[in-house]
Design a protein that fits this description.
It is a single chain. 27% of the residues lie in helices and 19% in strands. By secondary structure, it is an alpha/beta fold. The chain has two domains: 365 residues, Glycosidases (TIM Barrel), CATH 3.20.20.80; 75 residues, Sandwich (Immunoglobulin-like), CATH 2.60.40. It has an eight-stranded parallel beta barrel with strand order 1-2-5-6-7-8-9-10. A six-stranded antiparallel β-sheet has the order 11-12-13-16-14-15. Strand 3 and strand 4 form a beta hairpin. The longest helix has 16 residues. It starts with 16 loop residues before the first strand and ends in a 5-residue tail after the last strand.
Length: 463
């Protein structure tokens, strides 16, 4: 996958990423073996930096309000915990990806009037526990601030979210009464410190970076930070939320310039909205046969595909984009079955407090759901094999992967008979009422039940 204007990474574009959202680092360590066994090739963890923590816990969004890049010390763990996690995942051949927050620093206006980061209080903590913090240090001089007032843009809240200049220079805030998150300038010191931070993380073995709130960064800032050297041998993708694909206002204002001005990856919000329109709003499944051809999906080698992101269930403004459970499963079957993009699987620890139909936290331990694990297995078996649509209609879509694997989705009310390519196939997964995972053999044709999806592979591909 291309990772900068001139650099390409050796990481395959087909690797599945587990988004272990707001997991403590030691929990990731605990499940490292199982994560690898489930077929994941990478784990994305929340921002590894210094942010506010409290003995009784803090909200997930505190992790996205940096106090200092030079130390990992937050509610999820510290630098030592992070190093241990990285080493254990490496033993299981699983890469570590991290969130980086480069648009802003923490809103601490309720505590102080200055814009020194970290604050004098934190610098004093460093001094009082110098030996401990030296062990936690990633880079730099902890006796001095990382940023000062000259590194921030003059404060004003974003009001017009379709004005790129305002979105990239204003503060993200909760309204007129909220001073918002202090927005960093694109200046020499900011770029230098952010590159130092990335370099230190790469030295720890980090192989991927998610750029949080990338639509709020100027293109110049992104280009200066993610230069050839910084981008070498890592997978980088930006979070640029849009309301759809080509011709949609947010796409044209924010995502299109990013795609043109960099060769980094990006969240495939165009494809997400195409799937949402099909599975939630009832548009024909046939519209998903080749969404890229009509501007409703990103290029195969730049897309991060998903059925849900952490913002959707955890922010009121996006709650209406949470799919019904069955439809989310259909979406995962589609993105893990199709050719193109890097699938990102979301699993939290019940930050949203949304329950599933069994009245359990909906996305807690979603990562190792048996049906989902089988879908990942299909994805890994079919890496880079071409995709061909076999049948499509209002309520169904069937495609093959070089006639070695079959994906079928039937949201209709009646079973559907599907003709198979030559050969003998085994069911890898079916989401019918039995939720079956079996090696049942079929040839010539098979029946997919109503309101279900299935994946089959050539019998000789599985043991």
């Amino acid at each position: 996958m291309t990772t900068s204007n001139t650099t390409k990474t050796t990481i395959k574009a087909t690797n599945v990423i587990l988004h272990a959202f707001d997991w403590p680092y030691n929990r990731v360590t605990q499940y490292a073996k199982d994560i690898a066994k489930s077929g994941y090739k990478a784990v994305l963890v929340s921002p590894p930096l210094k942010s506010y923590k409290h003995e009784s816990g803090t909200q997930w969004w505190q992790r996205y309000q940096p106090q200092d890049y030079r130390v990992i010390d937050n509610q999820l763990g510290n630098t030592q915990d992070f190093r241990t996690m990285t080493a254990v995942l490496k033993e299981h051949d699983v890469h570590v990806y991290v969130d980086v927050v480069f648009n802003h620093m923490a809103n601490e206006s309720y505590l102080r009037d200055d814009l020194n980061f970290p604050s004098e209080q934190i610098l004093d903590e460093y001094k009082q526990s110098a030996e401990n913090y030296e062990k936690l240090k990633l880079f730099g001089d902890l006796t001095k601030p990382l940023f000062s007032e000259r590194d921030f843009i003059k404060a004003f809240p974003i009001k017009n979210w379709t004005d790129p200049w305002e979105v990239q220079h204003g503060r993200i805030s909760g309204g007129n009464e909220d001073p918002g998150l202090p927005t960093l300038k694109c200046n020499e010191n900011v770029v230098k410190q952010q590159k130092n931070y990335i370099t230190s993380l790469k030295q720890l073995g980090i192989k991927g970076f998610r750029i949080d709130a990338a639509k709020h960064l100027t293109l110049e800032h992104i280009q200066l930070v993610w230069d050839k050297n910084i981008s070498a041998d890592v997978h980088i993708f930006g979070e640029i939320i849009t309301d759809g694909g080509a011709t949609k206002e947010e796409y044209e204002l924010f995502l299109a310039p990013y795609l043109k001005g960099t060769s980094l990856g990006a969240y495939d919000f165009p494809l997400f909205h195409a799937m949402y329109n099909v599975f939630e709003k009832g548009q024909p499944l046939a519209e998903l046969d080749n969404p890229y051809s009509v501007g409703q999906a990103l290029a195969y080698d730049r897309a991060i595909t998903f059925a849900i992101t952490h913002d959707i269930p955890n922010n009121d403004v996006f709650l209406d984009q949470v799919m019904e459970e069955r439809n989310e499963l259909f979406a995962y079957c589609y993105i893990l079955g199709r050719d193109g993009g890097v699938p990102l699987i979301y699993s939290d620890l019940d930050t949203s407090k949304i329950n599933n139909t069994n009245d359990l936290p909906r996305w807690k331990d979603r990562w190792n759901d048996p049906l989902l694990v089988q879908m990942i297995s299909f994805h890994n078996l079919m890496q880079c094999l071409p995709m061909k649509v076999l049948d499509k209609g209002e309520d169904h879509l069937v495609f093959s992967r070089d006639d070695k694997g079959i994906v079928a989705i039937n949201r209709g009310s009646e079973p559907l008979n599907i003709k198979l390519p030559s050969g003998k196939f085994a069911f890898l997964m079916s989401s019918d009422e039995k939720g079956s995972i079996s090696n049942e053999m079929v040839s010539d044709q098979f029946t997919i039940e109503a309101q279900s999806c299935a994946m089959l592979v050539q019998a000789d591909m599985i043991s």
